[in-house]
Amino acid sequence: MPDSLQGTLDLLILKTLQLGPNHGFGITLHIQTASQGLLRVEEGSLYPALHRLERDKLVKAAWQTTGNRRRARVYTLTAAGRKRLGEAEESWAALAKGVGRLLRFA
Amino acid sequence: MKNMRNWFRRRDRALEIHEEVESHLEMRAAWNRAAGLSPREARTGARRQFGNQALIEEDTRRVQGFPWLETLGQDARYALRGFRRSPVFTATAVVTIGLGIGASTAVFSVVDRILFRPLPYPHAERLVSVGMLAPSVRRGLSSRFGRAGKCVRQQERLPHTGRTRSASPRGHRASLGNFLLIIGTLLYHKELFMKALLEAVQPGDKDWNLVQAIDPARLPAHIAVIMDGNGRWAGRRRLPRVAGHQAGIGPVRSTVETCARLGVKVLTLYAFSVENWKRPRAEVETLWRLLRYYLKQELPDLQKNDIRLQAIGRLDALPAQVRRELESGVEATSSNRGLLVNLAINYGGRAEIVDAVNAVLDMARLDGSIGTLRIDEESISTSLYTASCPDPDLLIRTSGEMRISNFLLWQIAYAELYVTETLWPDFTRTDLLQAVLEYQKRDRRYGGLSDGPGGRPVNGAGASDESPIAALRSS
Asked: β-pairing, B340-347 with B416-419?
């Protein structure tokens, strides 16, 4: 179960980056606002996941200077990342459908 | 090499992760300020929302790289924290290991220098070392006690030479010769003490094991003996008391010899106390006769063996002839440098202290310092009959009596007492060696905690504290 939860965080990150390159804080903010406050992950837990994705070459990272002259490490989705996002969305949809059916059945 | 590169890269990565997290915190704080929080609240809020920063950075670092290296670092940090919690243990461990390493290094350097590398002289393989007994022992023990002559001069190969003994000793002249002589003497010094004794005791002898067990480095410098039990010895055999005194001469001889062979510096024998005057006149006269007999009989041997004789006690009360002979014996041996034998004759410990105090007073009167005179331990010690001697380390009493009997009252303050049931005429070398062994088992504290002979208050450095040569030459 932890694996699929971790996979969930990966899915959220990849989906956020589909909108465009972003830094860690930006990703956090997007997850919170897009879920309208329902998904409030501990912000720090994002970083091990981001670096794992980077290690697996699903995202690539580069230091950039943001609008208000702050340095930030900005992540971009790679082709492999895009492919993985598709798979993850499918498996998530299947999981959600399965869990939903189970809940309705009971 | 690749590992090293990775390691440096990992350090850079750790820094990078930290910067990334810091930048996140700054942005979150700025966001919080924009939401209306005070700067301080914004910052603490950012940290709270982030979670455990150190843990997260560590987890992030762990995503790539070598978990074992990370664990190693953790283990090291854990160990360091443990050390900080028990500093005494840590200090002990560090000092122990440090000393161990230091000692090993030092010993190895010395061994390497002495044994493995040739000496820095041409034809080093032809060098010989010459060991030599100090003159006192050589002159002293060779003739009288026999068999010592062969150890006077020795030629040995140095351990690192592969050759047989050099045919000619010409190689070591001048300074090199002296150098080797000193080295040789130092190397043999351990054996020097015991050598004379070992020559008198062969393997299989009943004293062999005792001699082997004695530590030559911790011999008593001064042994004092209360020679008791002559009368009882005679009584058990239904002999007159004088026969007991006569039988006591042999043990005196053997005790002197064994002490000389052991390398003991001073032997004090309680021969005749002031109280002995109370005994029957005939017995007293026999004692004087025996003393004169002993002196006459033993003087040549004392001379040969470098033994110095000294009499302590109120000698002016002695019969004139006895005193003359005693004084001539003392005079004749006065230049000897070996064992010092103190014969306590007409001796009393209290009388000695009284005499010492009077001597201090007399001196003060002579030099006019009587008005301001203050007596201290030092001034009494140096005015006793035994002023030139270290205090006794070991006091032996025969015949089982648990008394001091007014013997060396001042000097035995820290002496180890050894009482044996053996009557004096039966006292042999075995008994003496057993007493010395028992002495070496004792924990000598000199009134303090166990701090060894260093804590000794008066002038009593043991034989072991001096260089072997000094110990043999001085006294």
From this structure: unpaired
The overall average pLDDT reported for chain B is 79
DSSP annotation of A85: H
ipTM of the complex: 0.87
A29 touches chain B (CB under 8 A): yes
The torsion region of residue B51 among left (phi > 0), alpha (psi -120 to 50) and beta comes to left
Give bridge partners of residue A63 from the DSSP assignment. Answer: A73
Asked if B51 has any chain A CB less than 8 Å from its own CB, the reply is yes
Q: Is the CB of A23 less than 8 angstroms away from the CB of B28?
A: no
Return the bridge partners of B460, or none: none
How far apart are the CA of A9 and the nearest CA of chain B, in angstroms? Answer: 15
Tell me the three state secondary structure of residue B76. helix
Q: What is the DSSP letter of A64?
A: E
Angle between helices B281-304 and B249-262 (to 10 degrees): 30
Q: Specify whether B406 is catalytic.
A: no
Q: What is the pLDDT of residues B65-76, one digit of tens each?
A: 655 666 677 788
Is the pTM higher than 0.80? The answer reads no
3-state class (DSSP) for residue B309:
strand
Q: Measured between CA atoms, how close is A74 to chain B, in angstroms?
A: 10
Is B425 in contact with B244 (CB distance < 8 Å)?
A: yes
**CB A42 to CB B51 under 8 A?**
yes
Report whether B300 contacts B319 (CB < 8 A).
no
